[in-house]
Amino acid sequence: MPNNTAEQLATEMPDLQSYWMPFTGNRYFKQNPRLITSAKGMHCYTHDGRELIDAVAGLWCCNAGHCHPKIVEAIKAQAETLDYSMAFQLSHPTVFDLANKVTAMAPEGIDYAFFVNSGSEAVDTALKMALAYHRIRGDASRTRLIGRERGYHGVGFGGISVGGISPNRKMFGTMLPGVDHLPHTHNLSENAYSRGLPKWGAHLADDLENIVALHDASTIAAVIVEPVAGSTGVLLPPDGYLQRLRDICDKHGILLIFDEVITAFGRLGDNFASSRFGVTPDLITTAKGLTSGTVPMGAVLAKSEIYDTFMTGPEGAIEFFHGYTYSGHPLAAAAGCATLDVYKEEGLIERARSMEGKLEDALHSLKGEPHVIDVRNIGMIGAVELEPIAGQPTARAMQVFRDCYDKGVIIRTTGDIIAFSPPLIVADEHIEKMIETVRSSLRALN
Ligand code: PMP
């Protein structure tokens, strides 16, 4: 905190009645509220005046650390200058600057950026782009979409249809038609405690050939995967798996989409997972780290070949009937420009790569602690998987979450997996505190 102590910033608890909270047990939360009232760098401060280390960068998003002064300043300046600009044959300069900065960071050949407001919107936009791309090329029969089990692609109907998490689907009835799923690649009996990419599992990409054989390539528009699946537990791609998917897609004229909502902008110690793994998809979806979580924004990044295909109709006509009121919003664009500048000026992406070994060793030191059955990591992302209790699969991880919060560290849990994704400014002492707190919480488990 710059001036005030955490205790001085403690605030009164608001009336909790009317807010319907997303993705959380509302009734349990309202009995046990935990409110963050301010944040700075690696730390969050609570309503009751406590300081916590943020071991998850908000929700895998505050890569530059909380309330970075340059980003805050850019948002303030933009808010005072231009609050909004509509998109119908009008725009504003900052969003063009941002498109240039993002595509300059992207793998070679990815030269265009389409802005949206979230990861979910980025996914639905990319799926629609893929379908429209084939249609414009006279390939209108390519309508099938392929996702993967344990994939998370946000909460739009496109995203939950290609996603592979049953609780996110089963409340909502019919999904998009014509969707198949590749098998997930998580296999503890083969890959537990791997360092680096898991050695077993690249052959699972060949399932795409089975799907092609079943439906015929002429019906398939796109495959979407997270290069590293984040929300279902930090599942790293087996060595060679992504390249194999790329090769099969190329062979059959299928577009490959990487959902990099979590993995872009330094999270894996490289600009994108695509650059880290040396496999370039046709479309990349991003959000989160694009603005370091400060103002909601997502983007779909596209190869020139895709953009050019859309630009072949009559000039003056709308090329893609899709977009949002707030696409490329000035505040988000200003936050994005400042964020990407901060990553560059402060060398945060290189820093993430250089800290990878430290996080890896620290995480692996948890091997042998009570109930731990796997540890995995890459860049500034890691996970510790716990043995589930039959009939209450999330009980242990939730207990660790609560205990860590009480001891001063915010972690994320997903099922029985504890995830780490600290801001890229993380230092040795934060890693030590994160890991030692989790260790003590594991030892306190019943
Ligand atoms: N895709 C992936 C890979 C994600 O991790 C997320 C969010 N965790 C999303 C899409 C959805 O993003 P949002 O919550 O911003 O809609």
Automatic annotation (TrEMBL):
One of its GO terms (biological process) is biotin biosynthetic process. CDD domains: OAT_like. Keywords: Aminotransferase, Pyridoxal phosphate, Pyruvate, Transferase. Its cofactor is pyridoxal 5'-phosphate. PROSITE patterns: AA_TRANSFER_CLASS_3. Belongs to the class-III pyridoxal-phosphate-dependent aminotransferase family. This is Omega amino acid--pyruvate aminotransferase.
